[in-house]
Write a structure and sequence with these properties.
Elements (H helix, E strand, L loop, with lengths): L1 H22 L7 E4 L15 H6 L1 H7 L3 E4 L3 E2 L10 E5 L6 H13 L3 E6 L3 E3 L3 H6 L30 E3 L5 E6 L5 H15 L13 E7 L12 H16 L6 E4 L7 H6 L4 E3 L1 H9 L2 H11 L8 E5 L8 H4 L3 H13 L3 E5 L42 H4 L16 H4 L6 H14 L1 H5 L1 E4 L7 E8 L2 E8 L5 E4 L6 E6 L4 E2 L2 E4 L4 E7 L1
Parallel strand pairs: 1-2, 1-13, 2-5, 5-9, 9-10, 10-11, 11-12, 12-13
Antiparallel strand pairs: 3-4, 6-8, 7-8, 14-15, 15-16, 16-21, 17-20, 18-21, 19-20
């Protein structure tokens, strides 16, 4: 009797394990790029903060994203937190170091990842290096920053040869360039980055970041003669050191030249990922030949073991919904983003169609605020947690884009099955439900119609065909390949005799069967 019972239990357990193995699909990564100050305010001071993001992790998981990318968190006077006062201190408006560590642990508990943006190439006038080294040749930080004079009284210019940044609140912030060729600066960066990889040095990494975004990474920084060959002398030693602490880190570099495919970075710096700027332009062009050209290069020629971040928006670009008001085209762009390959990255608010274009208020950091406005949680544009920080100290009004009851909010879209928000959820669920869409390689799928872009995603013995109508007219396309059998994953159309008929801006997804 006991033997029979044991056999039954064994059979049931084996069946469960088999079912789990069968359904255990390897999911791909989907990044959510957050401008923290504008996301969710947990304490009523109008500033988006760490605890606010922590409270909204269920929203992000419901959306389907797997990772969070944050802009710099360190103490800075600039609202975007680039140009640090102190790299080692969390901006008090965001919270405390303990609140930061609590957020990281909670993200990891949920099976998600977190990436931190870092830009240590510049410091502001309140930074210790500036305060101690300017006019003091005996300072231990004398060579940590660049100077334009031998007496070290004139700190060097920064990006675009500027000496100061005019802020949205009417103040000015002096900034200079760090001497990245100084070996002590390199060691400082190794220690700084290492802290955020493993804060308590226990080797568990539950409180550490999963990688870094390296802003404005250059081999020859801003054309300054002192700062050449940085790939060899700064970036590669830094990233190699970090991988000795946690080999699983995934670091992405933002190329300063957005026309650069980033292959040189892969070869010489040790970065794992680059940004597919060329593919971003191609997706938003809705031009088949440009899409094929950029995808074949950026995705098709990406070195083995490396990855491309694919995106439509980021904090430095106009929001797509301000450029293209058609919801059909917004959905088409979303489908290409999520399904074409690489690692898709969604900029906060993109999933609800937030608007925002760069302003023109002279030499000031205010110009980019419309691209970084408060996330729209509510239909009325009023409610708990709205992070309208720019209302407090601003010398001008920026939120022309956030309007009540315009359909652009989580509240208005959440229960609307046809909304952009729910379409993003549908796309991400589709992507994660199929191994080829989750992690497969991109390959062009030729057809005879200049208005229909089609491609395969392939992994091992799984193959998916995606076809999109880039035009506002119904299109017929004939594929070169005839696979005989296609299982519909997402489509109102079928393929027969290698032919497909697509409605305006329609997306069709099929699993190719042998």
């Amino acid at each position: 009797m006991m033997r029979i019972l044991f056999l039954k239990i064994l059979l049931i357990t084996s069946s469960i394990c088999f079912a789990q193995k069968k359904n255990n699909i390897v999911k791909g990564e989907v990044i959510y790029h957050v401008f923290l100050r504008s996301y969710y305010d947990s304490n009523g001071d109008m500033q988006g903060d760490l605890n606010g993001l922590k409270q909204k992790l269920p929203y992000l998981q419901d959306l389907g994203v797997t990772s969070v990318l944050l802009l710099p968190l360190y103490d800075a006077d600039c609202y975007h937190n680039y140009f640090a006062n102190d790299f080692e201190k969390i901006d008090p408006e965001f919270g405390t170091m303990q609140e930061y560590l609590s957020l990281v642990k909670e993200i990891h508990k949920r099976g998600m990842k977190i990436y931190m943006d870092m830009e240590t190439q510049y410091v502001a006038e309140k930074h210790l290096w500036w305060k101690d080294a300017v006019g003091n040749l005996q300072s231990p930080y004398s060579d940590f920053i660049l100077f334009d004079d031998v007496e070290h009284k004139i700190p060097a210019t920064m990006l675009f040869d500027l000496r100061q940044l005019n802020s949205y609140d009417g103040t000015s912030i002096k900034i200079t360039t760090v001497n990245l060729r100084n070996k002590n600066v390199l060691e400082y960066n190794k220690n700084l980055f290492s802290f955020f990889v493993d804060p308590n040095k226990d080797g568990r990494f539950d409180d550490g970041v999963d990688g870094f975004r390296l802003d404005h990474a250059m081999d020859h920084l801003d054309g300054k003669p002192q700062l050449t060959n940085l790939f060899v002398h700064f970036w590669e030693p830094l990233l190699t050191h970090l991988k000795t602490i946690n080999p699983a880190l995934k670091n992405v570099a933002e190329q300063s030249d957005w026309n650069d495919y980033g292959f040189e970075y892969f070869k010489k710096t040790g970065v794992d990922r680059m940004f597919g700027f060329g593919l971003q332009k191609a997706i938003l062009s809705f031009n088949k030949q440009l899409l094929i050209s950029k995808a074949d290069t950026i995705l098709g020629k990406c070195p083995s073991g490396k990855e491309q971040i694919i995106f439509l928006e980021n904090h430095d670009l106009d929001r797509f919904a301000s450029v293209e008001t058609s919801i059909e085209k917004q959905k088409l762009a979303a489908a290409l983003l999520c399904l074409i390959g690489g690692i898709p990255s969604i900029y906060y608010g993109q999933e609800i169609g937030m608007k925002g274009k760069s302003g023109n208020w002279g030499n000031t950091d205010a110009n980019d605020i419309p691209r970084r406005e408060a996330f729209e949680w509510y239909a009325s544009n009023q409610g708990k947690g709205l992070a309208t920080w720019y209302h407090a100290n601003s010398i001008r009004k920026f939120d022309e884009n956030t309007k009540s009851n315009d359909g652009v909010s989580v509240e208005e879209q959440l229960n609307n099955k046809l909304s952009l928000l729910n379409y993003y959820k549908q796309l991400i669920r589709l992507k994660q439900s199929n191994p080829a869409l989750a992690t497969g390689k991109y390959a062009n799928a030729p057809n005879d119609n200049d208005n229909v872009f089609s491609f395969y995603r392939i992994v091992e013995n799984r193959k998916v065909l995606v076809a999109v109508n880039l035009s506002s007219n119904t299109q017929q396309a004939i594929f070169e390949d005839d696979h005989k059998r296609y299982h519909v994953l997402m489509s109102k159309s079928t393929i027969k005799d290698k032919k497909i008929m697509l409605e305006p801006y329609q997306i069709a997804v099929f699993e190719v069967k042998k």
